[in-house]
């Protein structure tokens, strides 16, 4: 039995979609019931980039099984303000950030460390090592590899969009609302 749903990704989540799917409802047809996390990732959006999912206006977890006719709204991570009273995906927003960066972001790692942030840099870039360290030390993975963020056991991660280290630094500061933290260090 085929199931049809409508899904819409908001704000920077559109970066993961083809341009013709930006800022609009996307009709998805499925052979059978699937959990919302799988459907979102099939569209190319890493689960680590998602902070709130509404199905028919109600917040749900990644394991929520979709039904025919569901309308899904997917929102990016909100670090600048607390949505813990509505999200079903995380226990609380990140307030004391710790990062692990893969070898694609060496210069960014230097910039973040220079401003006193808690940063671990993984030169060998073995995905399993990065993921395990992020889990044991409760670090957010910063990477330019969407493939890494699509791994199911990644809890927190962010795909850095810019290529230039200085722009990457400003992107991460803005994305994680770090300006006031850096000013106080």
Give a summary of the structure in a few sentences:
The chain is α/β, with parallel strands linked by helices.
Which stretches are low in confidence, meaning pLDDT under 50 for 5 or more residues running? Answer: none
Order of helices and strands: EEHEEEEHEHEHEHH
What's the number of helices? Answer: 6
Give the structural class: alpha/beta
Domains, number: 2
- SS elements, strand count: 9
The shape, in one word, is elongated
Helix content: 25-40%
From the alpha carbons, calculate the radius of gyration and give it in angstroms: 17 Å
> Major sheet: size, sense and barrel closure?
5 strands, mixed
* Share of residues in strands: 15-25%
Please state the average pLDDT score.
88
SSE topology sketch:
Layout: E1 3-9, E2 26-30, H1 36-42, E3 50-55, E4 58-59, E5 71-76, E6 98-101, H2 106-114, E7 118-121, H3 127-136, E8 140-143, H4 146-149, E9 157-159, H5 165-175, H6 179-184
Parallel strand pairs: 1-5, 6-7, 6-8, 8-9
Antiparallel strand pairs: 1-2, 3-4, 3-5
Helix pairs in contact: 2-5
